[in-house]
From TrEMBL:
<feature type="binding site">
    <location>
        <position position="166"/>
    </location>
    <ligand>
        <name>Mo-molybdopterin</name>
    </ligand>
</feature>
<dbReference type="InterPro" id="IPR022867">
    <property type="entry name" value="MsrP"/>
</dbReference>
<protein>
    <recommendedName>
        <fullName>Protein-methionine-sulfoxide reductase catalytic subunit MsrP</fullName>
        <ecNumber>1.8.5.-</ecNumber>
    </recommendedName>
</protein>
<dbReference type="GO" id="GO:0043546">
    <property type="term" value="F:molybdopterin cofactor binding"/>
</dbReference>
<feature type="binding site">
    <location>
        <position position="221"/>
    </location>
    <ligand>
        <name>Mo-molybdopterin</name>
    </ligand>
</feature>
<dbReference type="Pfam" id="PF00174">
    <property type="entry name" value="Oxidored_molyb"/>
</dbReference>
<comment type="similarity">
    <text>Belongs to the MsrP family.</text>
</comment>
<feature type="binding site">
    <location>
        <position position="73"/>
    </location>
    <ligand>
        <name>Mo-molybdopterin</name>
    </ligand>
</feature>
<keyword id="KW-0500">Molybdenum</keyword>
<keyword id="KW-0479">Metal-binding</keyword>
<dbReference type="InterPro" id="IPR036374">
    <property type="entry name" value="OxRdtase_Mopterin-bd_sf"/>
</dbReference>
<dbReference type="GO" id="GO:0016672">
    <property type="term" value="F:oxidoreductase activity, acting on a sulfur group of donors, quinone or similar compound as acceptor"/>
</dbReference>
<feature type="binding site">
    <location>
        <position position="216"/>
    </location>
    <ligand>
        <name>Mo-molybdopterin</name>
    </ligand>
</feature>
<dbReference type="InterPro" id="IPR000572">
    <property type="entry name" value="OxRdtase_Mopterin-bd_dom"/>
</dbReference>
<feature type="binding site">
    <location>
        <position position="131"/>
    </location>
    <ligand>
        <name>Mo-molybdopterin</name>
    </ligand>
</feature>
<comment type="subunit">
    <text>Heterodimer of a catalytic subunit (MsrP) and a heme-binding subunit (MsrQ).</text>
</comment>
<keyword id="KW-0732">Signal</keyword>
């Protein structure tokens, strides 16, 4: 039995940015009133029936409006343009869905996505996101630490990397139709095992308190907030613990421009553009937006710099 419900939203109940902000103010006020109850994971039910608890990592910036988060996407399975995913992803069916955890683990398992979500403690984490094309967003994800899933599987001693694979479904993903040759399918990514086990590394199943929209990687996608956006593989079907560094899609396409590590680094430019500043998406109007200086490790250096202390990040970009 699921311990909580996570219904699919109808278009009319998608949380607006404003509704989410006012709910947060309500929660902040009620958490003072409720005192220690919050610490035990008790929280008023969300209007949408989603039960997550505030996670340990919360960015300070003003969140990007939901319409920008869902209408400015990279998801080549649905086309090359930033607005293609919101246009073409509606026919995609993210349920039923299985996620296989396999390879060098003591307990391989094929999870049903809803059983997996019921087995994990769901948290909301407001993460800074930074794309290699030099744009950025900040918004609340719902999901769980990847480490919690990997610990259940018990990686073996020789597991040094984690390989991820997206779904292959040309009948629902127009960008995978034969003949287009945009990317080699399925999309694949990888992390070193210490990166994968880091508490910041997150598997997202929702955002803004709602089931993850198709164009953002439903039903489950990776979020690694100190790395460029392309590491955040969407619609994952397979997680495999391996001994050797696995191939990654963008590195296969263009190894000179996209490395395996892809740590946000304002000092190492992409060959075709600077990575020193970023364009804030959805930040127009009164609250500014425009550009800002990019922070090393996207501002998460305190947490993750130690992972790379022995590495030259110009060579291992
Ligand atoms: N399966 C898959 N995952 C993917 C991509 C893709 O094309 N296919 N694009 C990547 C890139 S380049 C970026 S910037 C992020 C964008 O995630 P968002 O649309 O949720 O912002 O997804 C990443 N994950
Ligand atoms: Mo990207």
């Amino acid at each position: 039995m699921a311990r909580w419900s996570y219904p699919r939203p109808s278009p009319t109940e998608i949380t607006s940015h404003r509704a989410w902000m006012s709910r947060r103010r309500f929660l902040a006020a009620s958490s003072v009133a409720m005192g220690g109850m919050m610490g035990q994971g008790v929280r008023p039910a969300m209007a949408e029936g989603l039960q997550t608890r505030p996670g340990p990592f919360q960015a300070e910036e003003k969140p990007t409006p939901l319409t920008d988060v869902t209408h400015y996407n990279n998801f080549y399975e649905f086309g090359l343009g930033k607005s293609d995913p919101s246009t073409y992803a509606s026919a995609f069916r993210p349920r039923p869905w299985t996620l296989s955890v396999e390879g060098l683990v003591a307990h391989p398992r094929v999870w049903d996505i809803d059983r997996l979500m019921a087995a994990m403690t769901l948290e909301e984490r407001l993460y800074r996101m930074r794309c290699v094309e030099a744009w950025s967003m900040v918004f609340p994800w719902d999901g769980f630490a990847l480490a919690n899933l990997l610990k259940l599987a018990e990686p073996l001693g020789n597991a040094r990397y984690v390989a991820f694979e997206s779904v292959l479904r040309p009948e629902q993903m127009p960008g995978q139709q034969p003949g287009l040759d945009s990317l080699p399918w399925p999309y694949v990514e990888g992390l070193r095992i210490d990166e994968a086990m880091h508490p910041l590394t997150f598997l997202a199943v929702g955002l803004y308190g709602q089931t993850l929209p198709n164009q953002n990687g439903a039903p489950v996608r990776l979020v690694v907030p100190w790395k460029y956006g392309f590491k955040g593989i969407k619609s994952i079907t397979r997680i495999r613990l391996v001994e050797k560094m696995p191939p990654t899609t963008w590195n296969r396409m263009n190894a000179l421009e996209y490395g395996f590590f892809a740590n946000v680094n304002p000092d190492v430019d992409h060959p075709r553009w600077s990575q020193a500043t970023e364009r804030v998406i959805g930040g127009g109007g009164f609250f500014g937006g425009g550009r800002k200086r990019t922070l090393m490790f996207n501002g998460y250096g305190e947490q993750v710099a130690g992972l790379y202390s022995q590495m030259d990040l110009r060579t291992y970009f």
